[in-house]
Amino acid sequence: MTDKINWIFKNLHLLISISIVLPTGIIYGSPSILPEQLDIQVNTIDLANMLKANMCLYIGISVIWILGIWKTEYWKRATELNILFMLTLATGRALSMIMDGLPTGGYIFGIIAEFALGIYSIYQLKKYNTK
To answer: Where are the domains of the chain?
Structure first.
């Protein structure tokens, strides 16, 4: 029982990230869902192309996180990728808020969650990388 709890705590940042990023990627790549979920209208092939590319990027990164959970030799790299992914997304959102104004509540939640997950992942890397 203790091993399972330790496993959950060690991988919590990756589990949370997968549970958020994988569905978000699928939503981004689904033009029929976007208007309902994010009030985004996909009116051009270029926008659809960009969103599908982002979808596959999100899915690909999630696969690395899954590998990090499944195979311990990938855990450090998956955690480093989580730090990079979350903090660069938060930085991009912050930049947009400064330059473009405040987005809807979902995206404001996004910057808070991404920043928190990025910082938490740094903590996890420091805590578990020494063992």
So the answer is: 2-129
